[in-house]
Amino acid sequence: MEERRERLAPDVARIREMLGQLPAAMPRPVLVMVAGLPGSGKSHFSRLLSRRLSAVIVQSDAVRQTLFRHPTYSPEESFWVFSVIHQLLRDLLRERIPVILDATNLLKSNREQVYDVAKQTGAKLIIVWVEAPPEVVFARMERRAARADRSDRSEAGWIVYEKLRAKVEPISQPHFVVDTSRDVRPIVNKVVREARR
Question: Rounded to whole angstroms, how far apart are CA atoms 30 and 191?
Fold first, then answer.
């Protein structure tokens, strides 16, 4: 375990540096897992929540693009990306830094690794499933292809969306659901209240 942590350390340090100035520590750390299909609005929701909660966002797309100049999305690459992410989450949460994880986490096995991180660090885990109607996602994908939004780090298009939609495994844990084609502020407020409770 210690040997693996040492191998991850240089990349964890790179990503931590990329995050910039971190928010203040909380009495009890909070980990908000924002999950959903590509184009569902996870990053938009995460940014709004981050402003209200004063939490750092760890975005899987940004981590991947920092670690791999030309990502292949191979299983080996994804394994390394999420190994780095999970170690970074452990480090931040042990320092009681509130964190928002912005990643698809469509499979139960992927989410269970995040649950384990929360358990290991004593963090309060809040799960948010983000969704939007397919026609809204399609329009977002067209804007993404035109690179209309510079803050959008995802490279996933409509074909990837449809492929992943068939693989989604429902979340069995208590969670919030937000439709980003509507006003998301009520859910942001609920998550903030839950985090501060």
Answer: 11
CA distance 94 to 123: 8
pLDDT digits 0-9 by tens, 83-103: 999 999 999 999 999 999 999
pLDDT tens-digit map of 127-151: 999 999 999 999 998 887 666 556 6
Whether 105 contacts 111, CB under 8 Å: yes
Residues whose CB falls within 8 Å of the CB of residue 42, separated by 6 or more in sequence, listed in order: 34, 35, 36, 102, 103, 104, 130
Sequence length of the chain is 197
